[in-house]
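quick one, two chains, predict together pls
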Amino acid sequence: MAREVAILWWAMCAFATLVLIVVTALWVHAMRRKGPQMDAARARQLTLRWLVGGGLLLPTLSVLLLLLFGIPIGHRMLPLPLAGEQPMRIEVIGHQWWWEVRYPDSGVVTANQLHLPVGRPVDLDVTSADVIHSFWVPRLGGKIDMIPGRDNRIRLQADQAGTFRGQCSEFCGTQHTHMILDVQAHDEEDFVNWLQARREQQISALPGPAGEVFDAHCGQCHRVAGVSEGNRAPDLSDVGARSMLGAGVLSNEPGALLRWLHEHQQLKPGNAMPLHDDLDPDHLSTIADWLETLRP
Amino acid sequence: MTTPSNEQVAAQEQLHDQFNDVWGNPRGWKSLTIVNHTTVGIRFMLTGLGFFLFGGLLAMLVRTQLAIPGYDFLEPDVYNQVFTMHGTVMMFLFAVPMMEGLAVYLIPKMLGARDLVFPRLSALGYWCYLFGGLILCASLLLGIAPKAGWFMYTPLSSAVHTPGPNSDFWLIGITFVEISAVSAGVELVVSILRTRAEGMSLNKMPIYAWYILVMAMMIVVGFPPLILGSILLELERAVGLPFFEVARGGDPILWQHLFWLFGHPEVYIIFLPAAGIVSTLLPVFCQRPLVGYRWVVLAILTTGFISFGLWVHHMFTVGIPQLAQAFFSAASMLVAIPTGIQVFAWIATLWVGRPLYHVPMLWLVGFLVIFVCGGLTGVMLALVPFDWQVHDTHFVVAHMHYVLVGGMFFPLLAGIYYWLPHFSGRMPSVRLGKWGFWLVFIGFNLTFLIMHWTGLMGMPRRIYTYQSGLGWDLPNLISSIGSFIMAIGIATVLLDIVLHFRFGQKATKNPWNADTLEWSTHLPPSPYNFVSLPPVRTRHPLWEVPDLEERIDRGEFALTVIDHGRRETWGIEPLTGKVREIIHLPGNSWWPFIASLFIAFTCLGLLSKFYWVALVASIVAVLVLLRWSWENGAHPLAAPDARVQPGEPPLHSRTCDGPGLWGMGVTLLANGALYLALLFGWFYLWTVSPNWLVPDDPVIDQRLLLASAVLLSVVVLWQRPVLRRLRQGQGEPAALITCFVGTALLGALHAGLLLWAILAGDLAPRATAHDAVIVVMLVYSLAHGALATILSALQALRVHYGYVCKRTPYEPLVVEQFWQYSLAVMWITYCSVVLFPPTFGGV
């Protein structure tokens, strides 16, 4: 669908450039023209032609043409009921400043990444937990606002496997910049496998004092399936498998998680996670190592 | 033309001296009392320039921060304050006031009048603008500036998500500044309709005046929805009335509707006066009348109307129904037609004329290229599927700057170069002027042309940095370099303007051989513009009556007697331009300055949450305004001497049709737009709010409300016959006093009942948006009832003092309009609050 919009853009761009060149050329020519002084009747006739041709007909026809092509494209992008295969449903909830992604049919929850099957329509039901955000994956389609108290729906379809970048596009506060969504489109089989793996994922809690620290400090807000039930911050059950940390702040390389735990307020100033200065660095390190192992 | 003799010259100078005694501007501290439109207009423009430089500096900070990926030049929170303030300053403190300032300066001179019709209001508007702007900008220096974007979308701007005074500065400061915008709007409408030269019928009006008339009407109708929205959001933030909070029955999207209901017309409010400059300058440089005057007038009017039906195109991604989107999409594109008509009228004017090349012409060509480009991307954006893709990306940033800088800044610069000799009596430098233009033109396009591409590649707006490797690095760097070139260009232009005051060649009379009356004043003009008011029989007076300036100066035309000490100008019939009365204008006064000072204290009290300071200051401000209104009409300070020359029409205060009547009418139009926006909010929440909470039992005693409304009706019915007789020149003081005292008492009773209804009701305005809206509607009626009561009581007092009588019947008629408006509002409120809900399943 994004492709249709791209074609639309190039067509409009070509047409607009043409209009711009013609109008500017007319203007400049009119300024430089050296003709004989015009008599009133001739001038009147000429100006009427200009006004009707350029002022009325040109914009009217252009607009009609544009609507004729544009409205059907817009119509096809709408999440209207489908006859055959039903679109898959995924819920996306915007938070300051991260994405909560839920697969209602399988109960799988993740954050800041969106896994999609290739080749079939996906309906995303979006809303927000705090302020207005806007869901947008430029290469897959248009955007839709995520508004507290409302459910909006957008239909996307990835035509080939790959990763796409999504980014919040309604200004949502201090860290609007760092609200990036990693979209991964998989072939149907890979997608089913991923969903299956996530559903069957078994996580054993971190033993020892570090585990207690996790329960007391992290688990209050973060959920790790089977370990903690916090619901105010991103679900961490598969954090080890994500490509980025902090919704786009850091690439999730080995050691990045520990760095994030120490420096998250420098890396993403204003985010809701409290500082960890009062926690034992060894415990943090243990927690980070454990989190890195969390993957389906 | 014969050379005037020495006696003639001496007599002429003596006449000018006498005029200066009445019209002259005081110096020193007393210059704060100046109300003259020339001075106020220049103050508006200089202040606008100051805010423009401030806003431009902010833009430079933004471009520096975005020049390279991952740059940490500004902290995120500071960046958010900076871009919010850039938009806010440029829109509210530069574009609108600058255009209004130019109009305030030019309109009376173009129309052949001596001043605007409400000079004290001009001054009040200026001080509100200055103080409001300073308060707003001070917040940035204190580091507590608004930071939720210039559009202040809630819930981000709410007390929960932006605690601290940041958003308050925006809501209160902008509302304060808008007093200035709306008052200038009212004043320009009435001045254009009522104070033109004798014989200047509407179809002989300079085209610029048409543009300003439509702009001013749009301000009058377009700003109130935002004022209302700001008041509601501030009430939510400060007192917890949940108009926009879903959990308690409100809806954040209501804010977006109110904002864009204003925000879209705003674009045309900025563009129309600039197009007016183009339509004024081009014919002068072609030495031929504007082609298609009637077409252009129709195009201006159409633009004004259509622009109020487009606001939803800013909200295509909100998820509104498809049919509505298609409608607003088509409507948005329709604007291309009136704009196309103007562009081709300009081209045709060039075609039939013999253009001369001066610096202003360069800026006009620059305007055309940039504005047409911005218009074309605008048509693209109106197409819903394309908008879904590029909405809130840098594509929109580019589009908007093409429209606003191309459509406003370039014509403004053309106009400033054109009218510079008028401000200073000197000509600017051609060489520096050309350098300035090319630097700005190249810098602008370098900055913003590539930004379309940046947006198409997916870079959203309002992000303070970006990662490398997304393809955004190079275009951003180019944009930043371009912005610095543009800044150098603007500095060059400023240098040119500053230098010309010192080194510019003396301008000859009417240096561009223009056709409109403003060039028949002295350069720079005297405060009274024209020593005698010429009649106008044509659209191009200076082309068709070449020695007009000398004849005006010799006092050959009307209203040349000044020994009565009044400032006077003609009051005309709006359509035909026939003279109806002499409008006598108030002189310099402290009241506007003092009133705006106390409004500023009110704002500061609200901002610092010292509510008692705000309360006291606002009461003082109202008292000052009432005291100001005392020096009106037949008051000896307003018209020291009511005699007129034989054969001249009466003073307006001795008629039933003064400009105050029109001023009240247009003000009530603005007030009505505010009330309609409130009513829209009420019905919108009933139908659309996702979590609308309706109480089980009526929250207000409906009988009290009904009794209160009936009392108000009695007041209006009682006044009617009395005022009808007054209009016919009948009515003794005793009868008038009885009527005004009686209506004041009944009015007080009406207000008292309303207050009782509010206090005794079961209203829980903090708990539900439903009750919060009802409270605002009732308090709105209460305020009107109370003010009307005070005004009637003052009228009784003025009858007692002899300022109002059957020979001076004017003021009660103005007050009557206010009563009638209050009555209409009261009954609409009654129907909406009491009768409507049951039909919708409520109580």
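The domain at 35-506 of chain B is CATH 1.20.210.10 (Cytochrome C Oxidase; Chain A).
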